[in-house]
Write the structure tokens for this entry.
Amino acid sequence: MRKALLAGLLLVSTLAFGQGAWIHAKALLAQYLIEDAWARRLNGEKQPKPWSWADTWPVARLEAPALGIRQYVLAGATGRTLAFGPGQVPGSAIPGYEGNSVISGHRDTHFRWLRGLKKGDELRLQRPDGRLRRYRVQGTAVVDEKDTRILRQDGRTVLHLVTCYPFDALVPGGPLRYVVTAAPVAGEQVF
Amino acid sequence: MNRWILRTLALAWAGGLGFSLLAMALLALWPGMVAAEVVSPASVKQGSLFMREAEDGQVREAPLLDTQVDMEITGILARVRVNQEFHNVTDRWQEGIYVFPLPEDAAVDHMRLWIGERYVEGEIRTRQEARQAYEQARDAGQQASLVEQERPNMFTTSVANIPPGASVRVEIEYQQNVQYDAGLFSLRFPMVVGPRYISGVPVQDREKSVGGGMGWARNTDQVPDAARITPPVNPGKGRPDNAVSLNIRLHAGLPLSFVDSPYHPVTVREVADGEYQVELEQGSTPANRDFVLNWQFAPGTDTSAAWFTETYQDYYYGLLMLVPPPVEKLPRTPAREVILVVDVSGSMEGDSIVQAKQALELALKRLGPDDRFNIIRFNHDAYPLYPASVPVTEANRAQALAWVRGLRADGGTEMLKAMALALDGKTHDGLLRQVVFLTDGDVGNETALFQVIEDKLGDSRLFTVGIGSAPNGYFMSRAAEHGRGSYTYIGDVAEVGEKMQRLFLQLESPALTDIRLDWGQQVEQWPQTVPDLYAGEPVLVAVRSKQPLDGVALSGNAGGQVWSQRLRTAAGEEHPGLHVYWARRYIRHLMGQGVSGAGADWKQRIQAVALAHHLVSRFSSLVAVDKTPVRPLEEMLDSQPVPTSLPKGWSANALFGQLPQTATPADLYLLLGLLGLLSSLLLYRRRA
């Protein structure tokens, strides 16, 4: 009886641990596959799928030079997409172009680095045409998930990075979001 | 002492183990608790519906709006005057922009800009010219108003230079048809533009949009004017809703058995024989639900085929109304194949999905033993119940009923796939193929959908059913016309049974098919192919000719029998407004040509027709400019879109009320797993 309980505990624990490790592994490995897809996107392929059954594709490359971050932004922001990379919220502008672009990512995988961003830090976006656009962080804020003001298109060109808050909360599904707002570097055109 | 510390540690460890076991069990049993990985209400692939509430500050500052509606109904035509009064409640000069709905067959032909006791009559111009004239006047500080058509059922009024603390009134006049169905006359006045699902990928604006382009959505490749058709929504905090008051004069010509409004309490007075006065009981109502007026002739009045004529600017116009015989005198019905298509997207959440399910169950129960059927459900994807239609057996019916009861509303709306699945592009000998398309139709890519219908229709008949508070009636009735079917609107759960029963009864009872009309001369006739005549629904045909119209010979197929009749024009009778109806039908036809891509000059032709009949269309607008400038040019002008109300019964959260979920339970799993593993290790060592 005790042996069976022990074996059960061992099994459940291994499964739980495995599940947690799997989420991290998926997040990490997928970015390598997406890197390939991004190369194809730069070569002109319209919606390059990173793997054959994928329902998403990369739309931009996001960099934070000071933190050594280089990530691929996917189309869509559903749970399925966000498991593999940060996602462009549907209806927001294509990252790197005019308008309000909103990118969301998981606080415990891809977007954990957002906590390290400070006002004035540089962010870069590479667009599908290969061009880079530089942004500066204007500020950070914690908002409620119902506060959809950051999704508004008001004619300004701006970049919003969104992730869950607080960063270290164990149980997911909380109502708070951490928002980083960045604006294109003034007077500078895309180069 | 040491023992005490050890015991405390052991207790703490045991507690921790218990907690983690419980947590793991919870995680395993209840994946919904950690839904981040699993579901998201916004799981749409392309585009999205952002329910954008207007920001509080912005809403308070936007001009307040009162609407007064006066209707004059004569027989089957209604002449409607809408007065929109914009109140500027700020101490700055304002421009008011209001996106509002009108009936899908509304023909707007007059607009007046009222400044105090005098008015400026609106002129019909091409859309671009009108906009230029308006903007010039606005920038020069003159008062001006502009009425533009965004969709046949959606218009925008812009008013420039409303003085601080003052009001400006815009009067719009249009004509529409009274609906007639199974002896019941019905008139609908829409009050709210529902937030629409915008499909497609956002495009970059080459030019900054002006005027109505202040919506919550960005223009996309499939909906290039998305920003113009998505006005901000009033969050309802501190700002009153746009109020509407109604005053209706009804000249029925004959005594009525009843006059009533199903959704708004009204008072009805008979002011003369066959003449009624209808008003809202409350005086005015918030503009969040469509107004409907129903009336019926007293029993004993026989309604039959009717023929009206009018002479206007060198042309002769006519309107033919075909009324089917009573149900008990109908010919035998051929075997049918019924395809039921149901919308289960997120915007159907709430009342609508309940209504849809009730309707489907009813449809399944009414199928006959010789019929075949299939069901297709769709949101951003489409799934058929069976790969192909199956015969009606008790087993199939039970399976279908169970399937229908399990339907849930979720996801985006993509009608293209569903429509392509439902239509097979074939002709069916001896089988009447009827496709019933059930949706709240709040989509913007009508053009692409019409293309599918045109390509794949075959000899299928398409019947559309609009449910919920704000179905896109234009799309629905146009789709039905393309598909030689009919359009049914259901606004209230309590009406589902009655209205659907009537539709299914209608589907079972064609009165006259393959209808032919002989005018004895060259005429321009709309619709060109006359639809089938079903029990309970009349068929309307508009014609125009250079020669006087002296009548028409009708023939058709009534259950295998040849049927024919002849109608003659009564001398000296004139029915004003028929030319407006004809022009509207013609424009609708031309818009359909735009769909099929035939003829590059269709825009010019629409413009020409609209200008000749003084009509607002997608390519012609009414503009009124006051000569005298009122705003000192050194003072700024504020542009404010007037927020619209959310349709009654809609819940904002089911659409898109929040930011994406962005956390995984990864670390929780890791920690619990680690705790569990450590515990097993400890337990194992103690045993050993």
User: Anything to note?
Assistant: DSSP finds 13 helices and 34 strands in chain B. The first helix of chain B runs from residue 2 to 29.
